[in-house]
Amino acid sequence: xxxxxxxxxxxxxxxxxxxxxxxxxxxxxxxxxxxxxxxxxxxxxxxxxxxxxxxxxxxxxxxxxxxxxxxxxxxxxxxxxxxxxxxxxxxxxxxxxxxxxxxxxxxxxxxxxxxxxxxxxxxxxxxxxxxxxxxxxxxxxxxxxxxxxxxxxxxxxxxxxxxxxxxxxxxxxxxxxxxxxxxxxxxxxxxxxxxxxxxxxxxxxxxxxxxxxxxxxxxxxxxxxxxxxxxxxxxxxxxxxxxxxxxxxxxxxxxxxxxxxxxxxxxxxxxxxxxxxxxxxxxxxxxxxxxxxxxxxxxxxxxxxxxxxxxxxxxxxxxxxxxxxxxxxxxxxxxxxxxxxxxxxxxxxxxxxxxxxxxxxxxxxxxxxxxxxxxxxxxxxxxxxxxxxxxxxxxxxxxxxxxxxxxxxxxxxxxxxxxxxxxxxxxxxxxxxxxxxxxxxxxxxxxxxxxxxxxxxxxxxxxxxxxxxxxxxxxxxxxxxxxxxxxxxxxxxxxxxxxxxxxxxxxxxxxxxxxxxxxxxxxxxxxxxxxxxxxxxxxxxxxxxxxxxxxxxxxxxxxxxxxxxxxxxxxxxx
Amino acid sequence: xxxxxxxxxxxxxxxxxxxxxxxxxxxxxxxxxxxxxxxxxxxxxxxxxxxxxxxxxxxxxxxxxxxxxxxxxxxxxxxxxxxxxxxxxxxxxxxxxxxxxxxxxxxxxxxxxxxxxxxxxxxxxxxxxxxxxxxxxxxxxxxxxxxxxxxxxxxxxxxxxxxxxxxxxxxxxxxxxxxxxxxxxxxxxxxxxxxxxxxxxxxxxxxxxxxxxxxxxxxxxxxxxxxxxxxxxxxxxxxxxxxxxxxxxxxxxxxxxxxxxxxxxxxxxxxxxxxxxxxxxxxxxxxxxxxxxxxxxxxxxxxxxxxxxxxxxxxxxxxxxxxxxxxxxxxxxxxxxxxxxxxxxxxxxxxxxxxxxxxxxxxxx
Lengths: 574, 365
Fold this sequence. Notes:
The complex is a heterodimer of chains A (574) and B (365).
Chain A: H1 2-11, H2 28-33, H3 57-60, H4 76-87, E1 95-102, E2 108-115, H5 121-132, H6 146-154, E3 160-163, H7 166-174, E4 178-182, E5 188-191, H8 221-231, E6 237-244, E7 250-257, H9 263-274, H10 284-291, E8 303-305, H11 308-316, E9 320-324, E10 330-333, H12 337-340, H13 351-380, H14 388-398, H15 405-425, H16 428-448, H17 454-468, H18 473-510, E11 513-514, E12 517-518
Antiparallel strand pairs in A: 1-2, 2-4, 3-5, 4-5, 6-7, 7-9, 8-10, 9-10, 11-12
Helix pairs in contact in A: 8-11, 13-17, 13-18, 15-16, 15-17, 15-18
Chain B: H1 9-21, H2 28-36, H3 43-64, H4 70-112, H5 119-136, H6 138-162, H7 180-192, H8 197-202, H9 210-239, H10 241-246, H11 250-256, H12 268-297, H13 304-318, H14 324-364
Keywords (chain B): Germination, Membrane, Transmembrane, Transmembrane helix, Transport
Subcellular location (chain B): Membrane
Membrane topology (chain B): Multi-pass membrane protein
C-alpha cells in the first residue's frame, strides 16, 4: 500500500500551498516608517504632509526590561531572575551563571555572572580559589556590608569595584568582567577578568617603514593605549574613556597631553564623540565619518594611522588621538593635507633623505592626479607642444589602435583599478602575484592586440606607481577619484579644462577644515608651520610646534638645542 | 551684516596683485603699445603714481569709519539716496569688469588653445568656477591665490626670462616712444583705470580694516605694476613695437616664441594653465565684489543668494558683444571711464561730503 501511495504522490498533481517558503515579514517598527498611503482617505488633512516627531535613538533602543539602571536587590534569587531575563537565559549559551558558596566561617551563598570567551580563565580560577578555598575571614554581621569585605579582604584582583545598578553590571560583564552577587547584599562586586583571543602586536600592514619602530596597533584598545603610554612616558598624558553606541557599546579612548593640547580642541573632540547617537560603530572609519568637519568632501580631514610612534609624535605636537576598541587604527586630529603626505619615517632618516623622499612624493601627488588628464589634453588639443620625434612615435603607435584616446585611457585606467582591487581581495600571496602578472599580461596583450598604444601603458603604469607612492591610503583614494574628473576635463577642454579643475579643487580644498584648522595650513592660510612641510630641515631646527594646532606651549626646544655647541662661558664651540 | 571671514595681509596682497595683473593676459598690452610705442613699459609709472594716490585717498576715507567698508561709508557720507546710487555704480562696475573679463578671456582662449570650442562652453566654464569661488568666499579665494601665486608669478617670470635670447634692447628706443603726452598723459590714464583698488576697499574688513589698507593696497599695486612694466618691456624688446601693436594677445605671442632647444619649444599651452587660473580668480573676485557690495548696499545678512542672479546677468551680458573687437572697444571706451568713477572720483566726493558735514556741524556748534 505504501509503495502505491508513494507512487500516486509522485505522479499526481497537488497544489503547492507553501509556494513562497519563508518570508521575512515587516516588523511593527518597519510599518511605522511606511508612508501613510492607505491612510489618505481617512485623514481629514490628507493633502498636507503629516508631521512626524523625530524619535531619539536612545528612546528607540531603550531596553524595555531595564528601567533606568534599576538597583540590585538584596535577594539573590530575585537578582538571578533579573539576570536570566536580561540575558535571555537559558537560550543564551555563552552567558555563564556560576553558583558558589564563599568559604567564610559563616558560608555565604552567591553567584557569578560572566561571558565565556571574553574572560581570562586563569584570573577566574584565582577568583574562585580566593572565594571558595582561602576565605577564612569571618563574615560580617551586617550582610549589607558583605560586598565591601569581599572587595577589601578576599579578592586579589587588581581592579575590583562595587556597583549597585544593573546597567553598570551589564556594561561591565559585556566587556569581560565578572559580577559577583551576594546573598543579603544589595551591592555587586565587579572583578576585572577581561581576557579574550586577540592579535598580538605586529608590524603595521599598511604603513611599513624601513627605519623606526616596527610596532603597529592591534584591535585591543588597552594594548593600544599602553603602546602610546610606552612611547610618551609622561604623567601629563591623559586617557579619557567614553562609550559610543546604544546596542553595541564601543569604548573610545581620547588621549592628549594635558599641559599641551588646546583645551578647546579637547573639548570639541569630546563634544563630537559624546553627541554621536547611533546603535553601533564598527570601526574607526565609521567614527571618523561621525566626527569629521566635512564628510561630503572627498578629502579625508582626520588622520588614521596604525603606527603608535606617529600618534605619539602628533600628541607631542599638541594634537588629540582617538582610539576605538576593535580597530587597529588611531585617529589624529586636527590634521592637514601635508601631514597626510608624511610618513613620520622622514624624521628617522637623515634630513636630506627625508626631504628628497617628500619632494618625490609631491611629484607623485601631481602625477597621480594629473598625468592621464595631461596626456589627453596634449594629444587631443595641444599637439604642438610635443617635439616632432615624440609626436611621430606616438602617432605611429596609435595608428593601429581603433579607439579614441579617451576610450583608451579609460580602458586602461579601469583595468588598472580592477587589478588593484582584485589584488587586494584575493587572499595571501596570490593577490600580489595576480596583480603583477595581471598587469604585465594585460598590458602586453592589450598592446599586441592593438587595443591600446604602448605609450599609454607607460602613462597608466607611472600614474599607478605614483598613486602607490602616496603614503596615506584615504588620500590616495581621493586622488584616484579626482583623476577620472581630470581625464574628463582634459579630454573635453584640454589644458583649460584641467586649469578650471585645478582652480575648483584648490578652492574647495582650501575651504576645508579639520577641527577648526584650515586643511591646507600652513601654506593656505600662511601660518608659522615650522621647517617640516615638504622640506624637512634637521631636527635641531624644529624649535616650534606647528602654529596652526595652537598648543598651550608652542616652543618645542630652545633656539640652541644642541647645548654641546656652547662652551661654559656661552661662546660657540669650534 | 555680511560675514566674510578673515584674510591675512600676505594673502590679501597676493590676491589683489593677481587681480591687478590679470589684464596682462588680455589684449590690453597691445593697446598700450599702440598708444605709447616703444615707451609702453614706462606708461605704467604714471598709472602707479595715480594708483598710490587713489589708495591714499581711499585710506583717508576708510579711516573715517574704521569698522566699515567703503559701501557703508559712502552711504553715511552722502545720505541714503545718493549713497545707494553711488554704491550701485560700484556694483555695476564690478559686474561689467566680470562680464568683459569672461568674454575677453574666453575669446583669448579660443585664439590660443581651443579654436573649435564654442564660446558659450568656455564662458560657461568660467562662470561655473566664478560662481564656485564667489560662493566659497574671500577666504577660499585668498587661499587659492596664496597657493597658486608661486606658479602664476613664477610662470610669468620664467616666460619673460626664457625670452632673453630674443630681446633686442634697441626696440626700447626712442625712450619716450610716441611722446611724453601719450606716455605720461594717456598712458597714465589708461593704466590707472585698470587698477580696481575699489575692490580692496570693499573687502577691507577681511584683512584688518582701514589701518592695513594703505600698506596692503600699495604693495599689491606695486607688484601688479612691476609685472605689467616687465611684460611691456619684454613684449616690445621681443616682438618689436610694430608687431606688438598688431598682436591681439601679446602674452600668447610671447609664449609662442619661447625656444630653449629642440625639446622645449611651443610651450604656450602650458601658459594656458596660468592664464585660466588667473582668469578664474579674477572672475570669481569681481563676482564676489559685486555680490558683497550689493548685499551691503541692500543691508542683507548674506551675499550668497545674490551670486546666482548676478552671475547669470554677467554671463548674459558677456555674450552680448558680437565679436572680440567690439568687446575690446567696450572695454576701452566704456569700462575705463566707468572705472574712474568708483576708483578715483567717488572717494574724494565722500571726503568732500564728510568735510561739508563737519563744517555744518562746526557752524551749528
